Amino acid sequence: LSHDLQTAQEAYPILHQLSGKVGQRLKTSGQSANNLCVEIKYATFDKYTRQMPLTRPTQDEKVLYRAACQLFDALWNGNPIRLLGVRAGKLTDTGEPFQMDLFSYNPKETEKRMKLDRAMEKINKKYGDGAIHRGIKK
Q: Which helix (H) or strand (E) segment is 16 a member of?
């Protein structure tokens, strides 16, 4: 980071940006993440990481961002932050079958989100990365 972050409000946009980059790399490689990890290096150069399993394999930056914020909130001790990192783990091919959650599966919402993702990818391919992106909602 160009300067140390002092508040969580400063860190959330960075986490959003990093989650978006991770999601885009997953899409490009045709893989999905089953695990997410957040790394914080403090101004004292102490480094800490936390990871968590995701409920389903995903490339969705919104899901990745929520998980990253959850991990960040559990990990951050209030000291100034020198470095933030987000990485995906336990990768699987996108086409691989996975166990769905019986109680939270909503096929209409899933299809709607997939259509939106495809439209955003087309716009970003045509006009360049960052031409359109999701807003931040914490």
A: helix 8-29
136 has pLDDT over 70:
no
Distance CA 113, CA 118 (A): 9
Q: How confident is residue 34, by pLDDT bands cut at 50, 70 and 90?
A: very high
- How far apart CA 114 and CA 132 sit, in angstroms, is 16
- 72: phi then psi, degrees, rounded to nearest 5: -60, -45
**Largest Cα–Cα distance in the chain?**
48
Of the listed ranges 47-51, 70-74, 101-105, the least confidently predicted one is: 101-105
Q: What angle do CA 133, 62, 108 make, to 5 degrees?
A: 100
Residue with tokens 């359109």: 132
70: amino acid identity, one letter: Q
